Structure formats: structure tokens, C-alpha cells
Known about the structure:
disordered N terminus, rod-shaped, 3-stranded antiparallel beta sheet
Amino acid sequence: MAEKLPEIINDSVCPVDAKEELLDECESIWKQMEECQSKLMLLGTETLQKSDAKLSLLMMRVKALTAEYNQWQKRSPEIISTNPDVLVALGKEELQKVKNDLEMVLSTVQSKNKKIEEDLKREQQWHEEQEQILDALNGIEEEMKKQVVQFSEKRAFQELENKMLKLRAYKEELLNALGEFLEEHFPLPEKGGSAKKKKNSSEEPAVQLITLHEILEILINKLMSTPHEPYLTINDSFWPPYIELLLRYGIALRHPEDPNRIRLEAFHQ
């Protein structure tokens, strides 16, 4: 709170001589105004008998002077006296008025400043709250992005896993169907028919032949597990007619340098 303006010593009681002198001056000026007004009235009545033009002009002057007179009647006469005591009293009064006006302005400005400070504090608090909300929303957005990415990856992995399961099931279905077809139309030869036996070993059992289904499954697994080396070595467990069947119909291929090795034709390429 700003310091109040210093009090001006108000000496409202002027000396008696100064007051009487001021009143005398007022009375003198008032008498002069009355004399002027009387002269104007007499001048107006005399000119009325001369001509209409002058009468109109004088009436306008009377109206103007009357209006000016009324204005002077309404306002307080500002008289500057030559008496030092009167001038000091008037100066103190004017300074006191200025002091009061300045104090009122100061109070108004301080009130406005206080209101502005309160508004500023509220705005700062609102700004901080908005920043906290924005940070929270940014955190939620980042978390949602991570969740979306994780959900997308998880969903893609789940879909891929489902497709793999469907492919495996379809593969098993095809293999079962192929196995049933081969067992029905391409059975193993009867024992003792064309199974090879070793020389002078009648007591040893014949070599166990594998089915055409098993041959194809071995060739498929070899091609899938080691595509860079898909060839398989033929042994006594492979029945020659089955090998010739696979080679004749282009299902299997011989090694260009080793006729005892075969591979499955890469139909998937």
C-alpha cells in the first residue's frame, strides 16, 4: 500500500481583513455588472425607435448577453486577489482538492492492481492445471500407442499361429488321405515273394521293406528339413518297383552323379 500523500495544513480561517477585502471586491464587481446590464437595457430601448434592421441586431445582442449573464450567474466567480493571505488560503484549498483527488486515484489504481494480481494468480493456476492435464493425456496417448502396437503384434502372431495350425491340420488330412490311397492301391509285396535275402543266410530274416507312403514321407521331410541337400540314399528297405514308379512319373529324381541317391521333385518352387 502506497504511502498516503502528506496532509496539507488547512488554514480555513483567513484573517478578517482579507475576508473583508475579498467581499468588497466581489461587491464592486457585482455593481459593475448591474450597471452594464442597465446600460444594455437602455441602449436596447433607444434603438427600438430607429430602424427594423438595427432592432433585430440589438435584440440578438440582448439575447446573447442575457445568455452570457445567466452562465456567469451559474458559475462561481474566480477572483484572484492581490492580498497574500487570500492567495495562500486559496492555494491551500486547491492543493487539498488535488491531494484528495490523487488519493482517490491511488486507491482506485491499487484496487485495480489487486484485482489484476488475483486474476493473474487464477490464470497461472489454470495454466498449471492445463499443463498437468496435457501431460496426463500425453502419457495416456503413449500408453495407448504401446498397447496398440502390442495388440497388433499379438493379433498378427495369433493369426499366423492359427494359419499354421490350419495348415498342419490340412497337411495331416492330406497325408492321411495319401496314406489310405497308397495302402489301398500300392500295398507291400507278400513275404517270400521278391524280398531279397543274403547269400547263405537262410536263418536270418528278410529285410523289412517300407511302404510307398513311408518313402514319400521320408523324401518330403528331407526336402523340407535340408533343402540344400535333399538327396536320399537308397538301401535294401526301398522296394525297387516303387523307386522305378516314382522316377518314371517324375515324382522323384536321381542324383546326376550317384544313381543310388534320389530326391523329391520340388513342386513348390
